[in-house]
Design brief:
The complex is a heterodimer of chains A (567) and B (245).
Chain A: E1 5-14, H1 18-29, E2 34-38, E3 54-55, H2 69-79, H3 86-94, H4 96-106, E4 120-121, E5 131-132, H5 138-152, E6 156-159, E7 161-169, E8 172-180, E9 186-196, H6 217-224, E10 229-230, E11 235-242, H7 251-256, E12 259-261, H8 269-272, H9 282-294, E13 304-307, H10 312-319, H11 321-331, E14 340-349, E15 352-354, E16 366-368, E17 373-374, H12 386-403, H13 412-431, E18 433-434, H14 437-451, H15 458-476, E19 478-479, H16 489-513, H17 531-534, E20 536-542, E21 548-554
Parallel strand pairs in A: 1-2, 1-9, 2-6, 9-16, 15-17, 18-19
Antiparallel strand pairs in A: 3-5, 4-5, 7-8, 8-9, 10-15, 10-20, 11-14, 12-13, 13-14, 20-21
Helix pairs in contact in A: 1-5, 1-12, 2-3, 6-16, 14-15, 14-16, 15-16
Chain B: E1 2-6, E2 13-17, H1 26-36, E3 56-59, E4 62-65, H2 74-81, E5 96-100, E6 106-108, E7 111-112, H3 115-123, H4 143-153, H5 160-164, H6 177-188, H7 216-220, H8 227-244
The chains are: A alpha/beta (567), B alpha+beta (245).
The structure holds flavin-adenine dinucleotide, iron/sulfur cluster (SF4) and FE2/S2 (inorganic) cluster (FES).
């Protein structure tokens, strides 16, 4: 490499999705020089794909007139199987109305009710209609708004920069190193605060609704330098993903009144959740579908049908135009007349980098927000519409904390040293013997899906973990033949695979350690919730010898007593 | 099937022999090649669900999203797109030709530099300007108003319309269909103070007035956005404003 390119900013945000942009805007508005680094152009971030909506107790819907943040908090805590930290949930729900209104004022084109107010629809696990939406393109609309706001403030974007490592010394974060994807050059970044907003780890799974770029980068970057990961075993499976491509069919469809039908034409959710039926929380609906399929009541042993026809053509066109388009484009059918084949698929990462309410990790100067973080507001199961909200509320808090951080600028020499080390690491990768990354990746996804999916047990998981160790070993000896500089996606994929293998292990070890069933974590060998032993967070962290280890931390309750979940 | 892919500057193409099925999307084919045949191939992707705007390319000369185009549709699309797209006889027999979208500099293979496209978003200040004292709650908007705004806010910034517009590249400084459609969206938005002024942001020969209504933008838009209609309405509105004076 010729010369060394080093950039300096007060606050560096890694990630151009909703959490990252909200954080950058807030840091900027608090007087900091904030910049955003993202491996894709911000508008290409996974946030753009969010469909169904964002929760806030506005009480606009006639069915939710006396809604309140407390009710929202109760639904969230109950949905989380009591694993969420209740002070964080309180912050989330109290600040929800203002956060949504703020985006409305900034230009988001939300759907309206007859009075012109923000329309609200029912969502799974919510007592009343509380989910605001922009048709079924809520993420797209919010992300465009935040991108516009960030751009207009003159916030600097480093697009198509891929972070390869963080600079951490003595438990203090000083910045990060990136590859400029377009040129292949390494860049160093020095910052007083660095906020990770890198999204979920969904793509360690086969059958995921996530964008292909959700590869656990932030989790691995943080873990490698000593940050704690929390509740990694909790992975949400969405009940309705399109059979074949696993593109999401929003819960909003069921919220509007769509039915789930098995191969006998039966609306089977009556059997599993007599009250809530199709609108029971996701973990319950997903398991119900799998049970039907395993009982031979699915189609081709793979899927059931989602029937939108009860809504009528009018409602489908007005409220679910994106779903109609997806069905047409990716399944070649029109849901106004036909049934949509659906199956559960990986959807959301509840676990993440352990942070406090202000987004701070156990490493000084390193913060995290959005799906990559675990505050925790989702506990063992996230309610639909709460994660977009989380990106706004906690993105803002992290941005504020980082923006008001008056830490001394960290020593540039640290960044330079790590830059040199990264250069050497790349050289080693290029000189190793080529291994088929695509094949390794496929095997990992299959393992994680097969062994750490909707139904788990000790034996399967042990097999899975051993397989992951084998894959890690193959990976550590592997190298890359393609040395090109510009747009070397083989290199990016290689690095992403490294991140994913590390985080797959975190999920596996955490899942083995939790010998109970709670929310999305369902163990056939321990089918009951065990509050006496496991009402606590799983912490996955490196021990002082740099080896992976598990500890636990208490759940912060206070608002609502722990109860059974019935729907 | 023979897949012929442009490999950057000059006239270099590589051919790959791939077993394809009718349901595969063009993006699937690209991943197959990158993962199994040639890891040096570069193309953009993210959502694989036609919402992120990453994967715009030319497929047999037609500007399309790779993730939204299954092999089975390509023939029928040929008829729709034939009208305005030059074909240079490069499509292999019974095969497929994949090239970067034109009118943006090529970075590598199918990857183009988006900066000239996005530059106009900044120049036209495409963000909602806030009133100094907004209401405590949300602005009240009618469903019809929202429907009008949605037509344009549905744009995923994929740059397909940019690449298909004859004026882009021909008229120096022309912001292109997507940026103008967005500008019109902010003009329409009742939440912005003094937004009639918005129309004057592009009241130039190389702004609204450069459009010759080929309507290619509308034809190629994967999200049904009609920039041509925005431009036509803006022109009329500007004429009315002039008449008022
Ligand atoms: C299909 C789908 C629909 C959804 N619908 C809803 C919904 O209706 N309501 C709801 O509340 N939630 C929904 N969710 C969840 C929600 O969309 C996400 O939780 C949320 O958007 C995450 O935002 P984020 O900002 O944390 O991360 P992301 O939007 O994933 O952004 C991550 C950013 O990090 C960057 N990045 C990652 N790694 C690196 C690296 N190594 N170097 C540099 N940059 C990097 C990426 O470029 C990207 O900009 C949905 C999720 C899916 C999958
Ligand atoms: S108007 Fe349509 S074609 Fe043009 S950038 Fe937007 S989505 Fe793409
Ligand atoms: S990959 Fe997102 S639009 Fe094609």
């Amino acid at each position: 490499m010729v010369g060394k390119i080093i950039h300096e900013h007060d606050v560096l945000v890694v990630g151009g999705g909703l959490a990252g942009l909200r954080a950058a805007v807030e840091a900027h508005d608090n007087g900091a020089d904030a910049a955003v680094v993202s491996k894709v152009y911000p508008l290409r971030s996974h946030s753009v794909a969010a469909q169904g909506g964002i929760n806030a107790a506005l009480g606009n819907n006639p069915g939710s007139k006396d809604d309140s943040w407390e009710k929202h908090a109760f639904d969230t805590v109950k949905g989380s199987a009591y694993l969420a930290d209740q002070d964080a949930v309180e912050a989330l729900c109290r600040e929800a109305p203002a956060s949504v209104i703020e985006l409305e004022h900034w230009g988001t084109v939300f759907s309206r009710d007859n009075e012109g107010k923000l329309a609200q629809r029912p969502f799974g696990g919510a007592g009343v209609p509380r989910t605001c939406y922009a048709a079924d393109r809520t993420g797209h609309n919010l992300l465009n708004t935040l991108f516009e706001q960030a751009s207009s403030r003159g916030i600097k974007f480093y697009n198509e920069h891929f972070v390869t490592s963080l600079v951490v010394n003595n438990n203090k974060c000083a910045g990060c190193i990136t590859i400029d994807i377009q040129t292949g050059e390494l860049h160093g970044f020095s910052s007083k605060s660095l906020i990770l907003a890198t999204g979920g780890y969904g793509r360690i799974y086969e059958r995921s609704t996530n964008s292909l770029i959700n590869t656990a980068d932030g989790h691995a970057l943080a873990y490698r330098c000593g940050a704690a990961l929390k509740d990694m075993e909790f992975v949400q499976f969405h009940p309705t993903t399109l059979y074949g491509s696993n593109i999401l069919i929003t819960e909003g469809a069921r919220g509007e009144g769509a039915h789930l039908i098995n191969s006998e034409g039966e609306r089977f959710m009556f059997k599993y959740a007599p009250e809530a039926k199709e609108l029971a929380p996701r973990d319950i609906v997903a398991r119900s579908i799998m049970e039907e399929i395993e009982k031979g009541l699915g189609y081709e042993g793979e899927y059931v049908y989602l029937d939108l026809r009860p809504l009528g053509a009018e409602k489908i066109k007005e409220h679910l135009p994106g779903i109609r388009q997806i069905a047409r484009d990716f399944a070649n059918l029109d849901p106004v007349e036909e049934l949509i084949p659906v199956q559960p698929g990986q959807h959301y990462s509840m676990g993440g980098i352990n942070v406090n309410i202000d987004g701070e990790t156990n490493i000084e100067g390193l913060l995290a927000a959005g799906e990559c973080a675990c505050v925790s507001v989702h506990g063992a199961n996230r309610l639909g519409g709460n994660s977009l909200l989380e990106t706004l509320v906690f993105g803002k808090k992290a941005g504020k904390r980082a923006g008001s951080n008056d830490r001394e600028s960290v020593r540039l020499s640290n960044v330079k040293n790590v830059l040199d080390r990264e250069q050497e690491r790349l050289e080693t990768i290029f000189s190793g013997k080529g291994e088929n990354t695509a094949a390794l990746m496929k095997e990992m996804k299959k393992t994680v899906y097969g062994k750490f999916g909707i139904f788990r047990n000790e034996e399967k998981m042990h097999e899975g973990l051993n397989n992951l160790y084998r894959l890690q070993k193959r990976y550590s000896g592997a190298g890359l033949n393609h040395r090109g500089k510009k747009y070397n996606q083989a290199l990016l994929k290689f690095l992403e695979l490294g991140y994913m293998l590390e985080i797959a292990e975190a999920v596996a070890v955490s899942a083995l350690e939790r010998k109970e069933s709670r929310g999305s974590h369902y163990r056939a060998d321990f089918p009951n919730r065990d509050d006496d032993s496991y009402l606590k967070h799983t912490i996955f962290i490196k021990d002082h010898k740099n080896r992976p280890s598990i500890t636990f931390s208490p759940v912060r309750s206070g608002l609502f007593p722990v109860k059974e979940r019935d729907y | 099937m023979i897949i012929r892919i442009s490999r950057g500057a000059g006239d270099k193409y590589d051919e790959y022999n791939v077993k394809v099925s009718q349901e595969m999307t063009v993006l699937d084919i690209l991943f197959h090649i990158q993962g199994n045949i040639d890891e040096t191939l570069a193309f953009r992707y993210s959502c694989r669900g036609a919402v992120c705007g990453s994967c715009a390319i030319l497929i047999n000369g037609m500007p399309l999203l790779a993730c939204k185009t299954p092999v089975s549709r390509i023939d029928e699309l040929n008829n729709v797109y034939e009208v305005f797209l030059p074909k240079e006889g490069k499509v292999p027999e019974d095969g497929m030709l994949l090239e970067p979208i034109p009118k943006l500099p090529v970075l590598k293979d199918l990857v183009v530099d988006w900066e000239p496209f996005f530059e106009h978003f900044r120049k036209l200040e495409l963000e909602l300007k806030e009133y100094s004292n907004p209401p405590e709650k949300e602005y009240l908007l009618g469903k019809d108003q929202v429907r009008e705004l949605e037509k344009y806010s549905n744009c995923i910034s994929c740059a397909l319309c940019w690449s298909a517009c004859p004026m882009v590249g021909d008229v120096e400084g022309y912001p292109g269909p997507a940026a103008l459609a967005k500008l019109y969206r902010f003009y329409l938005d009742p939440r912005e103070p003094g937004n009639v002024g918005r129309l004057y942001f592009a009241n130039r020969d190389f702004g609204w007035w450069a459009c010759d209504f080929y309507t290619n933008c509308r034809k190629v838009c994967p999200k049904g956005v009609p920039p041509n209609i925005a431009i036509g309405k803006a022109q009329n509105q500007l004429k009315n404003e002039e008449d008022k004076k």
